[in-house]
Amino acid sequence: DFLETYNAQLNFKYSFLILITPPVTLLHGLVLWFYTKSVTSVHFKLKPKYLLHFLPFLLMLANLSFLIYFQPYEIKIDVVKNEIFKNWINYKIGVLFVTLVMFFYLGWCLRMINKYKEKAPHAFSNIDIETLKWFKVLFFSAVILYGVFVSLNFLDLIFRFMSFKEFQFISFAFGSVFILFLAFYGHQQSNVFSVNYSFSDDTMNFIAQNAYNFNIKDIKTKDFIEKLLNYMNTEKPYLDPNLNVEQLAKQLMVPPFYLSDVLNTKMNTNFLDFVNSHRINEFKTIVSLPGNRNLKIDALAKDAGFNSKATFNRVFKKKMKITP
């Protein structure tokens, strides 16, 4: 939008910038999808199949190349200055196409976040689920932003109350505010997988899906629960901030989904809450020691196995009903 607006002020000095916004707009949702995918995946890697996501962009680019980009300079200027393109059926279809693609990717991103929030507590011990709330703020604000743009576009198609130049200016202004919002809040967020975990997304999915389906009658459940609690109290594996369900299950010599199943069906908790409960108890123990009186709460929380102040504060308040 900025480049097109700037080019219009220069009387379309750079003809290759004419109507470049429509295909680029198709990349907005894709960029958000890649960002969400990278943040909520254990080992995110670019794959050749992801190139298929660029197909809508390439289709729009090919269409506009035939209609406008490869046309003589005089024709392109006339089409833009007199807004002739608004009478094209391709333009109207393009508006609908951009709308569908954008909201398709926004919906996909929200689905990924919700699925992650369901699965992560079964597998990880130090994931701050609350940090993912910012994603919903991000995507709902994007829905509002693009909703306004789409509404203005469709209303203009019907009532012709706004020039394309005015629409570009509004888009540029709102888009700038949205980018500043992303830059400010996004910079404060970190990848929810801050370490290189030893298993993949497929393993996490398998653990979550089978957490309630394993036949726990094959092992004496009470004996295992006693073994588990004794191990947590004596070996204190929860002091490792990167502890995950597969690591703990390996130490106890049981399948990961068996451990997850016992926690869920027999102990009425999940892996995340179970481990953090032990960390809170550890914190309560070490904070009462005379030798730790001069240490900061953050340092003691780290010694108890928490990897961030925000996670500790949230878990402590949830369990103890008061702030640290």
How would you characterize the overall build of this protein?
The chain is mostly helical. It is 67% helix and 0% strand. The protein has helices at residues 2-9, 21-40, 55-69, 73-81, 89-123, 133-159, 164-186, 201-209, 221-235, 245-252, 256-266, 271-287, 297-303, 309-320. Mean pLDDT is 82; it is low at 191-198.
Overall geometric form: elongated
What separation lies between the terminal Cα atoms? 48 Å
The main pleated sheet reads as:
none
Encode the helix/strand succession as letters.
Answer: HHHHHHHHHHHHHH
**Unreliable stretches covering 5 or more consecutive residues:** 191-198
Mean model confidence by pLDDT: 82
Fraction of residues in H or I helices: 55-70%
Structural class: mainly alpha
Count of extended strands: 0
Tally of helical runs:
14
**Taking Cα atoms only, what radius of gyration do you get, to the nearest Å?**
27 Å
Query: What is the beta-strand fraction?
Result: under 5%
Give the structure's gist in a few sentences.
Helices cover 67% and strands 0% of the residues. It has 14 helices and no strands.
Task: Itemize the secondary structure elements and their pairings.
Layout: H1 2-9, H2 21-40, H3 55-69, H4 73-81, H5 89-123, H6 133-159, H7 164-186, H8 201-209, H9 221-235, H10 245-252, H11 256-266, H12 271-287, H13 297-303, H14 309-320
Helix pairs in contact: 1-7, 2-3, 2-5, 5-6, 5-8, 6-7, 10-11, 12-13, 12-14
Feature tags:
elongated; 324 residues; 14 helices; mainly alpha
